[in-house]
C-alpha cells in the first residue's frame, strides 16, 4: 500500500510539472500584432494567428477594451460568440477564428484591447490561459498646416521673443516638426516646444534666427508640409568699417592725392541700414560734417593728417558703433600705388634673387680667370727643374703624365749640342714672352727622324 501511495504521489507531481510547461509553450502558439493603425471610417481586422489545430481543442475566451474604459466586447467558445448588446457598434467574431473585425472605425474605437483565451488540450484536463494585448489608433489624414506668428510686429534682437504656431484644420494624432531653411530645428536654451511640437517659442530672438520656416504635420497615416514663413529680425550694427576706392589704406590711415576728390563709405552689417554721421576731430572737440553713408572731401582744403570719425546708429535696435580714420595727402600714382601695395613683397624678393645671382656669377668668373689663365699654367709648368722632370720620366710612374709636354721636349732627337743649348735656353727664361718664343722655336725645330740617344 505504501508503494501504491508513493506511486500516486509521483504521478500527481509529474502532471503538475507538465501543465505549466504546456502553458508557457502555448503562449507562443497565439500571436497578435501589438499596434495597428487605422483610418477613420475604414474597416479594421485584428488578426489572431493560432499555431495549433482549433478543431481538436476546447477553448473559450473574451475580447475586452481596457483603455480608456474597461468594456466587454464579446465572449466566445468553440461553438458560439456572444456580443455585448449594450454596444452600438459591437465588433464581429467569426468562429472558429477568434480575430476581431470592426466594420467602421470611429473616434471612440481608438484604445487598448485585450484577448483572453483558455485552451484545453487533449489529454490535459487543466485549461491553459493565454492573454494578448493590442493598441488600436484611429486617425484622420492631416490637412495642409498653417503657421502663425505672435507678435506680428517687427522683432528686435535681444529684446523681443516670438511664438510660432503650426495648426491643421483636419487631422488627429498629429505631431509637428519644425524646419528652418530646410534644416530641422531642435530644442535649445532659446528654443522651446510644446508637447506635440505644434508651438515653437524663441526667447530672445537673434540675428541667426532669420530665415524661412516650415512646419510638417504628420500622424500614423499621413504627412503634410506647410508653406514657408519668413522670420525677420532687426539687428546691428556689426563690423563697422570705412572704405574707399581711392589711395592707399594702412591701419586706419588713408593716403590720397591732394588734387582729387576723395569719397568714403561707412559700411556695417545691420538691419535696417544704419544712419551714418561723419564727424571731424579738432583740438577743441568735434564737428559734425554731414549725414549719410557716403562722405566726400577735398584733401587740398584740409590740413595734413586730418582725423575723421564715422558713427553708425540703428534706429530700430537703438545700438550704435563708431570708427575713426586719418586722411594724409601724398602724390600717388594709382597704378604704382596698387603695384606697391600688392607686389611689394614680390619686388623685394625679386631684387634679392637677382642680386644673389649676379654676385655668384662674378665670383665664378674671377675664380675661373685666376685658375685657368694660360700664361700662369705654362709658367708654372716650366719653372720645375729638369732633373725632376727626367726622374719622373725614368720612374715611369703614372702620375708623370701630368708633365707629358716637358718629356716630349727632352726626348727630341737631334745633335747633343743643339739639345743642350735648347735646355739651357729653357732654364734661363726670364719672362713669359721668352717662354713662348722658346717653345715655338723648339717645336718648329723638332726633327722628323726619331733617335734613342737621349733616352740612354
Structural write-up:
The protein has 456 residues and is of the alpha+beta class. Helix content is 25%, strand content 36%. It has seven helices and 30 strands. It has a six-stranded mixed beta sheet with strand order 2-11-10-5-6-7. It has a six-stranded mixed beta sheet with strand order 23-24-30-29-26-27. Strand 23 and strand 24 form a beta hairpin. The protein is elongated, with a radius of gyration of 56 Å. The N and C termini lie far apart (151 Å). The relative contact order is 0.06. The N terminus and C terminus are likely disordered.
Draw up the topology in text.
Blueprint: H1 2-27, E1 30-31, E2 35-39, E3 44-46, E4 49-50, E5 58-67, E6 71-77, E7 81-83, E8 92-93, E9 100-102, E10 111-120, E11 128-139, E12 146-150, E13 155-156, E14 162-167, E15 175-180, E16 183-184, E17 191-193, E18 199-202, E19 211-218, E20 223-225, E21 229-231, E22 233-243, E23 248-250, E24 253-256, E25 262-271, E26 275-281, E27 286-291, E28 294-297, E29 306-313, E30 320-329, H2 334-371, H3 374-382, H4 386-395, H5 404-410, H6 416-427, H7 432-444
Key phrases:
456 residues; alpha+beta; 6-stranded mixed β-sheet
* Computed structural class: alpha+beta
* Helix content class: 25-40%
Mean pLDDT: 76
Number of strands: 30
- Apparent shape: elongated
As a percent range, the share of strand residues is 35-45%
Amino acid at each position: 500500500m505504501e508503494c501504491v501511495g508513493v506511486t500516486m504521489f509521483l504521478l500527481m507531481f509529474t502532471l503538475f510539472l507538465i501543465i505549466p510547461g504546456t502553458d508557457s509553450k502555448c503562449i507562443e502558439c497565439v500571436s497578435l500584432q501589438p499596434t495597428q493603425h487605422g483610418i477613420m471610417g475604414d474597416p479594421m481586422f485584428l488578426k489572431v494567428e493560432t499555431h495549433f489545430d482549433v478543431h481538436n481543442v476546447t477553448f473559450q475566451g473574451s475580447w475586452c477594451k481596457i483603455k480608456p474604459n474597461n468594456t466587454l466586447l464579446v465572449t466566445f467558445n468553440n461553438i458560439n460568440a456572444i456580443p455585448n448588446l449594450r454596444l452600438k457598434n459591437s465588433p464581429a467574431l467569426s468562429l472558429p477564428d477568434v480575430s476581431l473585425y470592426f466594420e467602421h472605425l470611429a473616434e471612440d474605437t481608438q484604445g487598448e484591447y485585450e484577448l483572453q483565451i483558455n485552451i484545453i488540450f487533449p489529454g490535459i484536463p487543466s485549461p491553459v490561459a493565454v492573454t494578448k494585448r493590442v493598441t488600436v489608433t484611429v486617425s484622420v489624414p492631416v490637412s495642409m498646416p498653417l503657421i502663425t506668428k505672435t507678435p506680428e510686429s517687427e522683432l528686435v534682437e535681444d529684446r523681443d521673443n516670438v511664438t510660432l504656431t503650426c495648426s491643421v484644420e483636419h487631422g488627429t494624432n498629429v505631431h509637428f516638426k519644425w524646419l528652418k531653411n530646410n534644416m530641422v530645428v531642435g530644442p535649445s536654451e532659446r528654443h522651446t516646444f510644446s508637447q506635440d511640437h505644434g508651438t515653437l517659442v524663441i526667447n530672445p530672438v537673434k540675428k541667426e534666427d532669420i530665415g524661412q520656416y516650415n512646419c510638417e504635420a504628420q500622424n500614423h497615416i499621413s504627412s503634410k508640409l506647410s508653406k514657408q514663413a519668413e522670420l525677420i529680425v532687426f539687428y546691428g550694427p556689426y563690423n563697422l568699417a570705412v572704405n574707399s576706392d581711392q589711395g592707399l589704406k594702412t591701419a586706419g590711415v588713408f593716403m590720397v592725392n591732394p588734387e582729387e576728390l576723395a569719397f568714403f563709405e561707412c559700411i556695417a552689417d545691420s538691419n535696417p541700414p544704419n544712419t551714418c554721421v561723419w564727424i571731424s576731430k579738432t583740438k577743441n572737440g568735434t564737428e559734425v560734417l554731414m549725414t549719410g553713408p557716403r562722405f566726400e572731401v577735398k584733401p587740398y582744403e584740409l590740413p595734413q593728417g586730418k582725423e575723421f570719425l564715422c558713427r553708425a546708429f540703428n534706429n530700430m535696435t537703438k545700438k550704435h558703433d563708431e570708427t575713426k580714420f586719418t586722411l594724409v595727402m601724398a602724390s600717388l600714382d594709382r597704378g604704382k600705388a596698387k603695384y606697391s601695395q600688392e607686389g611689394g613683397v614680390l619686388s623685394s624678393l625679386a631684387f634679392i634673387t637677382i642680386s644673389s645671382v649676379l654676385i655668384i656669377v662674378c665670383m665664378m668668373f674671377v675664380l675661373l680667370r685666376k685658375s685657368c689663365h694660360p700664361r700662369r699654367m705654362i709658367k708654372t709648368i716650366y719653372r720645375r727643374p729638369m732633373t725632376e722632370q727626367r726622374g719622373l720620366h725614368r720612374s715611369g710612374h703614372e702620375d708623370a703624365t701630368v708633365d707629358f709636354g716637358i718629356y716630349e721636349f727632352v726626348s727630341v732627337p737631334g745633335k747633343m749640342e743643339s739639345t743642350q743649348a735648347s735646355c739651357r735656353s729653357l732654364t734661363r727664361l726670364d719672362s713669359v714672352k721668352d717662354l713662348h718664343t722658346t717653345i715655338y722655336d723648339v717645336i718648329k725645330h723638332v726633327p722628323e727622324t726619331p733617335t734613342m740617344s737621349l733616352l740612354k
